[in-house]
## 1
Amino acid sequence: MSAETLNARKPLSGGNADQPRVDLSEPLDWLTAGFGTFRAAPGASLFYGVLFSLACLAVLGLARELPGFAVAFLSGLLLVGQFLAAGLYTAARQLERGNTVSIAAGVGLLLRRRVHLGLFAVVLALIMLAWLRLSALLYDLQTGAAPPSMESYLGLFHGGGDPWVVLYFTGIGFLLAVTVFCISAVAIPLIVDRDASPLAAVRASARVVARNLPAMTIWAAFIVALTGIGILTFFVAMVVLFPVLGYATWHSYRGLVERE
């Protein structure tokens, strides 16, 4: 039996639920480690960063051409980002093992994990589909028009809509973001590294977020802030920020799951 198989079957213990495991300074350590991994593999890192930035620009273009599907395109981008980051996790994993980073070998590993990765993608897609349907319903109740465009949604937040509807949109969007973060904080790295089942990965991710809520809140704030910088630079900065965040997520997985 291979070492990888043994690692994939390593159980995730329950641990002590009462004691926080991560210092508040550790999210910054993950980011620092992410920059270090970026410097160790600049070629592969920039490859994934460029792919993600191009995907962002493509979604922006599609949203302008087909504004009625803008929110659907943005939701799809979240899925694309999650699984492009999986390529970064394979690169970080290769570096940890003292190997040269190989995109081809990384793709091969992802293909071997395709069943569990695919099932996890279905979980995320269902959550985002629920958000799309609910947001469209709320918009229809507010305006009587469908399908909503991105400009229409933004109009709600510029004095063009009922404050209660704006509150609903804000609350539902926040719940969507929190849900996705909680179930995916370490889920895809865990699937990539150990070939964990989607259920085990989601449970492990929710568990480490719940047990380390203050530190994970800081980590989520870093992600939002750096993503905001990427958007403000019309995704140019995402060429570097996306791989750095991906590698930092891998290091957060190592730090969090090793405490389980």
## 2
Amino acid sequence: MKAIVTGAAGFIGFHVAKRLASEGFDVIAVDNLNDYYPVALKEARLSALTGDANVQFHRANIADPEQLSDAIEHGADADVIVHLAAQAGVRYSVENPAAYVDANVHGQVAIFERALKMRKRPPVVYASSSSVYGANKKVPFSESDPVDHPVSVYAATKRSAELLAHSYRHVHNLASTGLRFFTVYGPYGRPDMAPWLFTDAIFQGEPIKVYNHGDMQRDFTFIDDIVDGVFGAVNRILTNPGGTAPIYNLGNNKPVALMRFIEIIEEACGRSAIKRFEPMPPADVKCTYADIDLAARDLGFSPSTALEEGIPLFVEWFRGYNGR
């Protein structure tokens, strides 16, 4: 079978593309290698990915229909599109909202329009985010909860992508499934996320910013568990597109207090952090916590990596990648 993976040089996209190739899929990998964070990391991922004979890489901005068409020309008979390309980062969306509308909204439309023109009209498994739950007080967050009050432009664009998917299912009968990822971490992770920022600061002897004075919780989810969930969603939509829910949460189902998270990183690094306590940024939320009953039922999703196991694996990779 053949899969198109967008955002294949990104953190989750890289790992998903590798898994699909290892499972025998021919993978058309697409990414624009934007410079939101250092391109060298994306190139390192691609180097690890494109050594696989089952993977072809094409550079393109998925929000540009012409570039997208050229990039996936060899994937015109694809069986599924795994659309993970996006402008990432909650806090950066405060500074540059247009980048999020372009990648996350225009890009979603471009992918769906391309799917409609392809020979097999492949179903689309796409990335959403736990951020769509905004400042909801009820926990754990369930797919049936209201998501009408996003607290960041990033979250608003991810919710827009979900609504667009609904429209294309209704108007064009295009099968799709959105996956709401909860704070994904692990080897090859993003430099703008807390595991990298804190680990780097600890090794540099620099202070870390502890938001909301440490009174926060996150449902940290290890990358291998996320990849299992994505692969489960791909299998489900290929074998039973009519029996696939429009949205699934993919999280660890075990939120961890921020101060405990810092302790685990300190233990893995073998040294203490210098903490600088700061108020909550306006685009952040206090807690994320995934209800994963639906994903467990339909996708066989069963995350098994505790933070105490996953963070040392990340720190080990970080030290090797950065020569620490």
## 3
Amino acid sequence: MNAFAGTASYYRRFRPGIPVDLAVLLAHEAPTASPRRLLDIGTGPGLVASALAPYFDEVIAVDSDQAMCAEAEAVLRPALSGGQRLQIRHALAEDFEPPAGWQPHLVTCGRVLHWLDRPRFLDRLAEYVGPGGVLAVFSDRSLWTAESAWQQAARAVVQKFLGERRRAGDGVFGPPGPPYEEVLRASAFGEVTTATIPVRREWSIAEVIGYLYSTSFAASHLFGDRQDAFETALAKALVPFAEGGFLVEDNTFTVLTARRPSSMDR
């Protein structure tokens, strides 16, 4: 099941990227080398790879959705500087194989680890990430889990149209499983550190609608012929919260950086 089928164009236009502070943190955590290599898992339209590309010489961006890969190509390719190398790979994260001898210094998983077979993915990473390599797992709260009054109002409208349970495309969102930190510590990437990075955003009502259509729980096709009715109901619910035409969101990125111990640490 592709939970994000049909969302790629909305994802590119309406999903917020990562803040500068997060990009700087991840670039600082990754080993320095030449060429310096980034592997971005679940790249979507390349939001994370775009923010980190200035710090790396070679970037491979992987996604299981062909439409997302096309959006990433359109975003990332024109922004390359002289000498930088980019590959966009259509593959499952658990099955991805890098070019022979290619070892990433930083592997990023932004808003994606939940969707993966985590033990299988981490075992596969251990096959090609060398000692000292860093895996970064990070996400902010989605509108479904956020707690501000306007976000709760928006979620209530989604639930009125699609049901109380959180959707995941044509299915439902699965259980969370063990804490990510626990999973990482049990893997080859056992040196785990945690950080949080706050972010404040302002949304127009039209942008909230576009954001929702980028999600697995409110993709536009899930509403069928009720899409116009949904947009009308959502706008009506959000207008009382919009100050100066905008809705303010205070969010936080939770960041786990998991390092594979170098040989001297073993």
## 4
Amino acid sequence: MPRVIYLHAEAPPKPAPGRPCNGCGVCCASEPCPLGMLASRRRRGACRLLRWDAGGARYRCGLLDAPGGAAGPLRRHVAAAWRRFLARRIGAGQGCDASLEAVPADAPAA
């Protein structure tokens, strides 16, 4: 059954499965990943942690973009290690694993 998800008009098109992630947001706008389910306490619908990065014209995970703080080098080091751990857990940088087909709203009906 087709579902409608809403994405920013400037979001890049969804890459083919296995291709590098480009921040299209389709996967997270469709449903949260297991880590997103825990962090956002949501099992269905768009992940509450999905953030639009206007400067980069792409979506990003709010878990990875949490501020590291400026309380000293040790704290920044721990925050960076935590972000690397989280990135591995959500598969960031591993390539697109969404088997969803994204069709723009203005695309002609098939």
